Amino acid sequence: LCRQSLSEDSDVTEEDIEAELAIIHGQMAYIMQLQGRTEDALQLYNQIIKLKPTDVGLLAVIANNIITINKDQNVFDSKKKVKLTNAEGVEHKLSKKQLQAIEFNKALLAMYTNQADQCRKLSASLQSQSPEHLLPVLIQAAQLCREKQHAKAVGLLQDFADQHPANAAEIKLTMAQLKIAQGSVTKACMILRSIEELQHKPGMVSALVTMYSHEEDIDSAIEVFTQAIQWYQQFQPKSPVHLSLIREAANFKLKHGRKKEAISDLEELWKQNPKDVHTLAQLISAYSLVDPEKAKVLSKHLPSSDTLSLKVDVDALENSHGATYVRKKAGKLTGDNQQKEQGQGDVKKKKKKKKGKLPKNYDPKVTPDPERWLPMRERSYYRGRKKGKKKDQVGKGTQGSTTAGSSELDASRTASSPPTSPRPGSAAAVSATSNVIPPRHQKPAGAPATKKKQQQKKKKGAKGGW
């Protein structure tokens, strides 16, 4: 339609038509960007740039809008698009406000690309052009925070707030955010409470109460509630915000055990709405610990139990789909169902337990020991270990010595033989001593076991011998 309407004029050329179409597409993309359809807007912006329109101002505006969509992402594409904003004649095509917005975006892009000197230079020039503008100071503070110089950033913001009180609220909010990032919650609360025009706002009250609760400073949180309620009571009494603040203050005080302080808030709420049973119940609960007689008097205002009772079908609720527990009713059994249940019972009866496995050495002819399940110490036939009886330790002692048992083993010593020993060279001596084992050749009781242990030790210790 635009092409057809423009072509009716004989003086309009094809280039003018293309330029007008590019402007219309740019406006459509800008509307999409405002609606949050950033992907569609970015696609349309790139299509306009590919057409290479001759309008330098249009290209600068489109490049600036693409940079705002990219933000801190896709920085290389943004650096390419910045070149379009530096073309010759742009300052003659755009207004002062548009040129200022482009310079702001250039400073932010320099910050995101870690060009600190360029960022400071651009923000300083912008601040000199418009000293009361907030963005140059905020960009400088953000650059200092990226360099981890938080103290300098807070000082810079404080100086600007002192010089320009009209814009002090936004600057102080930024300072509080920096303090919270550093972990100084109490200092952030002090900065927020210094903003007088925002002290009574519900959002500010909520933020301060949350931060004071985090720091376990309940008194300061209650003080914030009190100041906000007093402001609304003076300027906007009986407003919905006033009543909601009173209710939140009462709940907060009851939660932290400040029932005496909560009574005044609950009484104020009950006066505003005498039919509020919930508030009356809270008030009675608070008075029960402080003044029981007053609680009895207020309990008379509670509605009777008949009015509170509701006619509810319990069975319908239990059988509903939303009930977690459903009571199943026993249905009547027909003949087929009874036969099925009887059949199932028969099947269950037929099941038998498996027999336990018998040991390998089991002998059915021998009766098992009735005490086999008891520990060995608790059995009747347990005698205990033999202690204190020393066996004859044959072969031990000094070399050549004999024990009392060796004389009994000597066959030469009989009742008829004389005590004298035979001569060493006689035959009788040979026959008498042939059956006697000398002490050094006698083996003690535990000799085989000791030999085995010695052999094992030798085998373990031997690393390569015979």
Number of helices: 24
Largest sheet descriptor? none
- Total E-strand runs: 0
Strand composition percent: under 5%
**Assembly state:** single chain
Low-confidence stretches: 1-7, 425-434
So what's the overall shape?
Answer: extended
The helix-and-strand class reads mainly alpha
Tell me the distance between the termini: 112 Å
User: N-to-C SSE series?
Assistant: HHHHHHHHHHHHHHHHHHHHHHHH
- The helix content is 55-70%
Task: Give me the Rg, rounded.
Answer: 52 Å
Mean of the pLDDT scores?
78
Q: Can you tag this structure with a few keywords?
A:
466 residues, mainly alpha, 24 helices, 0% strand, disordered N terminus
Write structural notes for this entry.
- By secondary structure, the protein is mostly helical.
- Helix content is 62%, strand content 0%.
- The protein is built from 24 helices and no strands.
- It has helices at residues 2-7, 14-34, 38-50, 56-70, 75-85, 90-93, 96-112, 116-129, 134-146, 150-163, 168-182, 185-193, 202-214, 218-235, 240-255, 259-272, 277-290, 292-299, 305-308, 314-318, 335-350, 404-409, 427-433, 447-461.
- α7 packs parallel to α9 and α17 runs antiparallel to α18 (292-299).
- The longest helix has 21 residues, at 14-34.
- The protein is extended and about 125 Å long.
